[in-house]
Amino acid sequence: MSSVLAFSIFGVQWQFLKPFIVVGLAFGSVYALSGVGLVVLYRATGVLNLAFGAIGAGGALIAYWILNHTSWPHWLAYTTCVVFGGVVNLAYGMVFGPAFARRDPLVKMMGTLGLALILLGIMAWRAPIGGAFARFLPLPSTSHIYQVFGTSVNLTQIIAIALAVVLTLVITIFLRVTKLGTAMRALANDREITATLGVPARRVEAAAWFGSGLVCGAAGLILPDLLTSLDYSALTFLVIASLAAALIGRLQSLWVTLLGGLVVGLVQAVLAPYTSVTQYRSATPFVLAIAALLVLSRRRVVSISRAQ
Amino acid sequence: MTVRKAIVAMALPVALIAAAVLAAGAASSTAKVGTGAAGTAKCGLGNGKKATGTPIKIDGLDMLIPGVDFTTVGKVAAAYFACVNDNGGINGHPVKYTLYTEQLNPAQEAALARKMVQSDKAVGIVGNTSFAECGTNWKYYKSKGYVVIGAGVQAECYSTPSYVETNMGPRYSNIGAAQALIGAGVKKIAIASPDTISAYADSGVAELGSQKGVQVKIFPTHLPVTDATSQVLAMYQFAGNGNGIMLDFTPDTAPAFMKAAISLGIEPKVKWGSSTPIANTLMAAQFPQFDGNLWINQEFSNVDPKVGPDSALMFQILKKYAPSIAPQAFAQMGYMDAKFSTIALLNIKGAITAKSYNLAVRSLKDIKTDMLCKPWYVGNALPYHIPNNTDITVDYKSGQVVVKQGCFDIAPVDKQLTQTRVWEKKYHLN
């Protein structure tokens, strides 16, 4: 059996690639999770939230503070991290959502960039990097390690993958079978007509902001553990990978977004042992997003020519 | 379904997973390695009188980017100058030290250099540390006759006349750590540095490896680090059991790799080397798993007040003037930058101007301190300076940093170091 599996992929033995696949799937799941949160919000409100990473980082820093500077229980720290995402997202949506409702998607997006920069500034002020230490936000689940197909997998990695799949499934069902989900989809198609038909647009949008914020908080809780450090700048800019996943899903399809996130994470990790390309791994989200956009735009041209 | 129910429905999976996460979790060495004389060190004149004269302008420029904060050097230099000002200043004149930060933007670095020299009219530049500033500004400083006393990182800090550094920088520190690892018997070394300095910082180890028959593989790393686990895994797969992995990162970044190594269970399987920055007790306390298995090249003496008077004074200064900064290698750099600058200022006879100050800096030689293995110097008209080229190896032990190997010469794998040692003897610099 072992001889059957002793093949190599571009010079790296399969045996050595397996741990990278695990790491990549775990990271990819969080990218996917965040991507799904971005898509849900975009579909309901037309806002592409660039502050996703910064909000998650803020929640993680608060959880870190609770764990290290208070005697409060751990569950409270983790819950606060998740709820912080929901509350900040909701607050932004309620305060700035109506003001930006009639503006271009680009203007709406730039508004969230402002939120990201404000949060970054607050984090730099209240929790500066430097000194002689680093921050960590380890989850207790990481110490549970299992052997799967001959490679080690920890429970946090399993949770990350499960959370991405379960949440995508739940949101898909929710959007299809619930009144609120239908209202969200209707808003995405035409806000004015939907509101005219009696749908409480602001309440529906509030639900989207809050729900997407909870997802953001959950990602902020899991990512520092996978990153093995609580670096708020790294967390903030990981929104790029999530955006790539969302773009691969054309800001429409939750399942393609899930797949896109997994592929981004997987490719990024699996390139690590390949010396010639390893230092370009950080470009993976851009490359895959651009490739996806090119393929999709090509398809569109074909469909238009057919229509003509 | 009401909005409230919907929110609960969306929150439920998140809460369930959070619950699953929760359920799952139901001798410091005092070896004296320095060159300082026994006794007590003092800030400047050390007379306890507050300086009230016309301020002397000194400026500094440190890099501050996501993942790397070099402002510790400048902040400790500022603390030292504050202590000088409380102790008579420079013959009654306080030092007014202004620290600027830059974000690896060459235009910004160049503009700030011109601001410090032309607009602020600083007589000297002290405490600079950056991945790129030496390369951007050395020609400008040379044209203005300035010699910056700082802590270097990139090649131009050690190959141009405009800078004299109190540290030896990552290239020589990495070589020192590699020497220690090779001495410990490793046959392969995987080394990682930030990609912006990797070519300079890691190539010395590669050259040493080829001389000693040790395989070396370089892993340039983009900051901030976003997948330490994959990288550590790749480094381990190259090195293999019993061989060496070297980290060349600041305490902001190195812990991610160390945590990843622990979570992968590989920390006891290889020998770990590092350049200076992680030689501090906070890191030692955070990572007991690495006790006895680290070969950290420490460019200075061990960070311990018992080492000698300068070390003791640094601890006192940090406590009084910069309590938020932990004693560490970057603090030693800032302390020495300001101390040596103060010596130059006090050596000036007559008016303190940019010309007289930088001339005084060039005249510095045989400056003894317990923080360095050999006396420090600048040396008149040298085309470049590497005055710190002998150091020690340290390790973690029970939350402390301990000396593993006393002072040794960094292997001269390049011409600059060979030539430096020739100058040291020829001009009696130390």
Structural class of chain B: alpha/beta
CATH class of the largest domain in chain B: Alpha Beta
Order of helices and strands of chain A: HEEHHHHEEHHHHHHHH
| Helicity of chain A, as a percent range | over 70%
Question: Which key features would you list for this structure?
Answer:
heterodimer, A: 308 residues, mainly alpha, ABC transporter involved in vitamin B12 uptake, BtuC, two-stranded antiparallel ribbon, two-stranded antiparallel sheet, 13 helices, 4 strands, globular, disordered C terminus, B: 430 residues, alpha/beta, Rossmann fold, 2 domains, seven-stranded mixed β-sheet, six-stranded mixed β-sheet, 13 strands, 41% helix
Note the topology:
The complex is a heterodimer of chains A (308) and B (430).
Chain A: H1 2-5, E1 8-9, E2 12-13, H2 14-45, H3 52-69, H4 74-100, H5 105-126, E3 145-148, E4 151-154, H6 155-177, H7 179-189, H8 191-196, H9 201-227, H10 232-237, H11 239-248, H12 254-270, H13 284-307
Antiparallel strand pairs in A: 1-2, 3-4
Helix pairs in contact in A: 2-6, 2-7, 2-9, 2-11, 2-12, 3-4, 3-5, 3-9, 4-5, 4-9, 6-7, 7-9, 11-12, 11-13
Chain B: H1 3-24, E1 56-65, E2 68-69, H2 71-85, E3 95-102, H3 106-119, E4 124-128, H4 133-144, E5 148-150, E6 163-165, H5 169-183, E7 188-194, H6 198-212, E8 215-221, H7 228-239, E9 244-247, H8 254-264, E10 271-274, H9 281-286, E11 294-298, H10 309-321, H11 329-347, H12 354-362, E12 390-397, E13 400-409, H13 415-426
Parallel strand pairs in B: 1-3, 1-4, 4-5, 5-6, 7-8, 7-9, 9-10, 10-11
Antiparallel strand pairs in B: 1-2, 11-12, 12-13
Helix pairs in contact in B: 2-10, 2-11, 3-4, 5-6, 7-8, 11-12
